[in-house]
């Protein structure tokens, strides 16, 4: 017998049960466990990916970086390199894995360059599926890619054919967040034009990029709308400190002025970072509920397991 | 801003199918020149708030079972716990009604809300338990019900097109009511708890504790604890599932001093010292249910609802359910077959 009814509460004062405390219990356990997040970065060499990642997380993920010359790049295929770092902030521990894809778009013929990437993403799904179906599930590691920053070159007129092909191939497997790199090469007008172009092309090709969920009742609806309207984010990264008006800030020093990374009037860096950290949970959820479940049902149907 | 220890990822052992990605050695968070002065804030800690919002939005299920002879105040106690009429009190078996031949399982669901958090509470009653003359194996229908809920969950989990949130009907907590005889546990109590503590979280409570004086209560509790220990009965919170030292210290205290909780339930209010309190009125005084000097109801309530609710669910999911699942995997040489159907009747060749 199942009947659902809003039951009557006893007279006020005596009515408090205490299960409103449940979110705190969940909170305590989550803080103890810590969080994991995997971010993939994809884009041609020299678009400032590494610098941007370092700026986003205030780290130095690539200390002894070796940048190969063109001749070397000819021979290279796309590599997958994963770096993990633990970040702690106000008692909250995050295990961040950044998956880099050096070699993407470098080859003269870039026909198959994203196949390696697709394979990597699928492999993580495969691994998770395997672990999830196994006997001992207590310590499953989640290496699935939760978010992919796709770097668009500011030098072109919009998306390149490779950009379109990549996004079409990956939008059903990972949350894609398009980012316009090295935005300081564009004036504000050029930036707006490029953004519009990119969005039109994305819609033309039926590409599904990550959608921000609607604002909750207590969230700033306007802020969310502003954030949404800025996609694709036009960003600048920097690991250098420049002194501006007596303060040390991250930026790029040009003869004609200083570009400030964290200045919202200069670029969308702060918007990108805010969007990422306030949506980590949602990005994981969409990966689990949509991309992973799609993979899983396809896989199970295929093998008839 | 960051100072975590270095960790390179070690993945769980995986078949040869999937090659490892080329791992770069993980980078230590060294305070670089530029970061030393730049105490930046990234905002990672907001993920906690995101999770909290999610919990509030989705609400949660909680399934509590009550077991014990009729007349021990089970329904009253559950109603007192949740401050609502979530369980219908019976007035015993009258002469026309027959005591059911086997234990019945009655599950009733309610949605209650508090502080913006929605709880779908299901109270599972087990009328008939221990009421017969011959009570042999009367726990079997209960064990069967509990396993059936695990099976239901498992079936949904292995489905090809499975639901995003699998409905959780598994029993998270079983309150076992001990009769306040003042002597010791009854053989039926031992048998029940021995069998069921392996499949579900059992919280033993001493019912109708207002029949005992303070000294009698202390002695009885000690004796019950001893008996449970001697018979190897692990009630919740089980020692082996303490996650860390903090848990262990907290739980040790509960296990060795507070449990089993000696409780009194009531749904009637009286005026005491200008306050309205839940209680039982007798010629010799009013027994206040939520007064810790009168009985341990408040301890039970805080334990089950305010501090260990989430843990009860987690132990059920991570331990009891996994044990059931592992057994199923081993017994039948595999999981129940995947299916795209969503109806119940995929009985298979298991």
UniProtKB/TrEMBL annotation, chain A:
Locations listed in the record: Cell projection, Cilium membrane; Cleavage furrow; Cytoplasm, Cytoskeleton, Spindle; Midbody
Keywords, alphabetical: Cell cycle, Cell division, Cell membrane, Cell projection, Cytoplasm, Cytoskeleton, GTP-binding, Membrane, Mitosis, Nucleotide-binding
Predominant place of localization: membrane
InterPro entries: G_SEPTIN_dom, P-loop_NTPase, Septin, Septin2
BP terms from Gene Ontology: cell division
Domain (Septin-type G): residue spans on this chain: 33-302
Annotated site residue numbers, Important for dimerization: 155
Gene Ontology cellular component terms for the protein in this record: ciliary membrane; cleavage furrow; cytoplasm; midbody; spindle
Pfam families the record matches: Septin
Gene Ontology MF, one: GTP binding
Protein origin, superkingdom: Eukaryota
Stored PROSITE patterns: G_SEPTIN
PANTHER family hit by this protein: SEPTIN (PTHR18884)
Family: Belongs to the TRAFAC class TrmE-Era-EngA-EngB-Septin-like GTPase superfamily. Septin GTPase family.
Protein name as catalogued: SEPT2 protein
Organism: Asarcornis scutulata
Lineage: Eukaryota, Metazoa, Chordata, Craniata, Vertebrata
Gene name per UniProt: Sept2_0
Automatic annotation (TrEMBL), chain B:
Location relative to the cell: Cytoplasm
Cross-referenced Gene3D superfamilies: P-loop containing nucleotide triphosphate hydrolases (3.40.50.300)
Transmembrane portions of the chain: none
Keyword Nucleotide-binding on entry: yes
Record GO cellular component, one term: cytoplasm
Region described as Disordered: spans on this chain: 328-350
Keyword GTP-binding assigned: yes
An example molecular function term from Gene Ontology annotations: GTP binding
Keywords assigned: Cytoplasm, GTP-binding, Nucleotide-binding
InterPro entries in the cross-refs: G_SEPTIN_dom, P-loop_NTPase, Septin, Septin3
Pfam family, one: Septin
First-listed, main subcellular location of the protein, grouped into a coarse class: cytoplasm
Domain Septin-type G per the UniProt entry, residue ranges: 58-331
Family, similarity comment: Belongs to the TRAFAC class TrmE-Era-EngA-EngB-Septin-like GTPase superfamily. Septin GTPase family.
Record-given protein name: Neuronal-specific septin-3
Name of the gene encoding the protein in the UniProt record: Sept3
């Amino acid at each position: 017998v199942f009947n659902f009814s809003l039951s009557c509460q006893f007279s006020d004062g005596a009515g408090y049960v205490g299960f409103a405390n449940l979110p705190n219990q969940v909170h305590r356990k989550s803080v103890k466990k810590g969080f994991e997040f995997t971010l993939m970065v994809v884009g041609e060499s020299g678009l400032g990916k590494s610098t941007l990642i370092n700026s986003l997380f205030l780290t130095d993920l690539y200390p002894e970086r070796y940048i190969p010359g063109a001749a070397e790049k000819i021979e290279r295929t796309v590599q997958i390199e994963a770096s993990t770092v633990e970040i702690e902030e106000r008692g909250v521990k995050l295990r961040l894995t950044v998956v880099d894809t050096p070699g993407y778009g470098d080859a003269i013929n870039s026909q198959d360059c994203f196949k390696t990437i697709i394979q990597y993403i699928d492999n993580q799904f495969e691994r998770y599926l395997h672990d999830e179906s196994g006997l001992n599930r207590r310590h499953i590691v989640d290496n699935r890619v939760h978010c992919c920053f796709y770097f668009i070159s500011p030098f072109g007129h919009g998306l390149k054919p490779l950009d379109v092909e990549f996004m079409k191939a990956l939008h059903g497997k990972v949350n894609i967040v398009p980012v316009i790199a090295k935005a300081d090469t564009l004036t504000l007008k050029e930036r707006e034009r490029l953004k519009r172009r990119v969005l039109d092309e994305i819609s033309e090709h039926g590409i599904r990029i990550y959608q921000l969920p609607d604002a909750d009742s207590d969230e700033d609806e306007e802020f969310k709308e502003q954030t949404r309207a800025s996609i694709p984010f036009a960003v600048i990264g920097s690991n250098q400190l420049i002194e501006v008006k007596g303060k040390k800030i991250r930026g790029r020093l040009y003869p004609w002025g200083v570009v400030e990374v964290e200045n919202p009037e200069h670029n969308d860096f702060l918007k990108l970072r805010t969007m990422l950290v306030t949506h980590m949970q949602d990005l994981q959820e969409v990966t689990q509920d949509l991309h992973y479940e799609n993979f899983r049902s396809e896989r199970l149907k295929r093998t008839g397991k | 801003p960051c100072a975590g220890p270095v960790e390179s990822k070690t993945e769980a052992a995986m078949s040869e199918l999937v090659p490892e990605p080329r791992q770069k050695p993980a980078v230590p968070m060294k305070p670089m020149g530029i970061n030393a002065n730049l105490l930046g804030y990234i905002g990672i800690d907001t993920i906690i708030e995101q999770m909290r919002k999610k919990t509030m939005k989705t609400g949660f299920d909680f399934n509590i079972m009550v077991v014990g002879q009729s007349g021990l105040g089970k329904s009253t106690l559950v109603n007192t716990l949740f401050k609502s009429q979530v369980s219908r009190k019976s007035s015993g078996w009258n002469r026309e009604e027959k005591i059911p031949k086997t234990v019945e399982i009655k599950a009733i669901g309610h949605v209650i809300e508090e502080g913006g958090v929605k709880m779908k509470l299901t109270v599972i009653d087990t009328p008939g338990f221990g009421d017969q003359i011959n009570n042999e194996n009367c726990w079997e229908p209960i064990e069967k019900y509990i396993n059936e809920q695990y099976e239901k969950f498992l079936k949904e989990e292995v489905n090809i097109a499975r639901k995003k949130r699998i409905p959780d009907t598994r029993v998270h907590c079983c309150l076992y009511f001990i009769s306040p005889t003042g002597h010791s546990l009854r053989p039926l109590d031992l048998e029940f708890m021995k069998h069921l503590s392996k499949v579900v979280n059992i919280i033993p409570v001493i019912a109708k504790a207002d029949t005992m004086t303070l000294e009698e209560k202390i002695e009885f509790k000690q004796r019950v604890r001893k008996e449970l220990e001697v018979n190897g009965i692990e009630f919740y919170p089980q020692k082996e599932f303490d996650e860390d030292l903090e848990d262990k210290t907290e739980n040790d205290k509960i296990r060795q001093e507070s449990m089993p909780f000696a409780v009194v339930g009531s749904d009637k209010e009286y005026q005491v010292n200008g306050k309205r309190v839940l209680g039982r009125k007798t010629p010799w005084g009013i027994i206040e249910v939520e007064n810790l000097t009168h009985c341990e109801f408040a301890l039970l309530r805080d334990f089950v609802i305010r501090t260990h609710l989430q843990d009860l669910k987690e132990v059920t999911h991570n331990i009891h359910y996994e044990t059931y699942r592992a057994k199923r995997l081993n017994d039948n040489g595999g999981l129940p077959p995947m299916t795209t159907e969503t109806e119940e009747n995929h009985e298979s060749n298991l």
